[in-house]
Structures are given as structure tokens and as C-alpha cells.
Predict the 3D structure of the following.
Amino acid sequence: MEKAEQTVDCLWQSGKSCASLWEARVIVGVQATAARMSQETVAAQDMLTRFTQWQGREPESVVAATTYGNGEFLQWLADRSITPYMRTRDNALRKNNPGYGPERFTYQPESNSYRCPVGEQLNYVGLNVHNRAHAYIGSAKRCGACPQKAECTSGRYKYLAIHIHESARQRARELVNTPAFAQAQRQRKKVEALFAELKNQIGLRRLRLRRMKFVPEQFFLAAVAQNIKRLVRFLSQPTEPLTVTT
């Protein structure tokens, strides 16, 4: 059985109709993709584009898991002035590196170089196409005599890799410690609950049809079932009796 993932984006902005959809946890977009991490952001871009065409304007913000926090997707959001409430996705080497990270260095646009915490310069040497990062390096002479070398790097000199979309990644990092980020992540739990309902109550843990061209049909039917449940709950709410005055 082919695996697939359902990307459910209940996008919210300040408009009254969209806010009511968010509070009711109504699914407004479904797209099934192969179970590959790279396809999740592609699906998210497609659904955001469709949402923009539907509403006639871009959403103000997007809330998502760390899986979506890659540089390319964050830059795509930045180009459309959409606020990303998601953590950046860093590779294992960067997360486990005990040395100084890019945040400890100051960029100098006039010379396209970086200055380290003790004032030494790291020069630009080129683009690493495989890692999609610009490379900046110090020198063995300057780094060898640095009093902070043991904390900065374990190599002969400092090698600094700056992602080609580092400005968008840094923008997302700065939002992590804001009250708006915490509130957005709390609201995201309402959407994550739909996945639990999909698996535990509707029973869509495995697909019943083979081949990707048949997978969207199953997910659309499951989303319709979830929305109908909420429609029934909405219609069954007691209404206030009308008061007749004479």
C-alpha cells in the first residue's frame, strides 16, 4: 500500500469569515502527496495559492510544524509578506555543533564578509551548491592565535556556512520568542486534532486504493466527513427563542 500524507491547512486571517472557519476547525484545503518531506512544502504552497485566489488576498500568517521551516519555504512566505509562525529546520550538523553559530557573527555588506566576536574577518569564498549555502572562512593564522578558538571551532580555522535564504530563516527565529508565536502554536493544536480524528475515529490509517492518482479521492471524502460532523454540531446548537412584542 502506498503511503501518503494529508496536508490540512486551515488558514486564518483577520476577516470574519476566515476566523469563523478557524474556530470551527473547518477544512478548507486538502492535498495528498507522497510521503516525502520535500513534497509537504510544495503542497502547502499550492494550497496557499488556491486560498489567495479564493479570498482575493494573501493570508496574514501561516502556522506550521518545524518540518515546513526550510529556507526555501520561508523565503516564499517572505516574498508574499506572510508571517511564518514555525521553527526553522536545521540540519543535525548545525544543531549538534558545539562551536559558534552564525548568530555570533556580524555581517559586513560593504565587503561581503563576516566579523567574528573578537573582531577578525571571515572572507567570502563562494557558493556551496550542494548545501545551498554561502561559505565564509577565516585563516589558520588569525584563528590559531584567537583566545576563543576552543569555543568557536575545532578546525584549523573557522568555516561559516550561511544559507542562501538566511535572512528569511533569521526572521522566523526572531518570531519564536514572541507572544504571537506562542498563541499561534496553541491555535495550531486545533488543526492537529483533526489528524488524530482522521486516524482514530474515521480509521484512515492506511489507504485502500493503490497509486497516487486515487489517493486524493480518499482524503477528500475523509475531509468531507469531518466537515459534515461539524456542520451537524453547528446546526444542532440551541437557538434563542424569538420574543414577540406588540
The first strand starts at residue 4 and ends at 8. Confidence is low (pLDDT under 50) at residues 1-20. The radius of gyration is 24 Å.
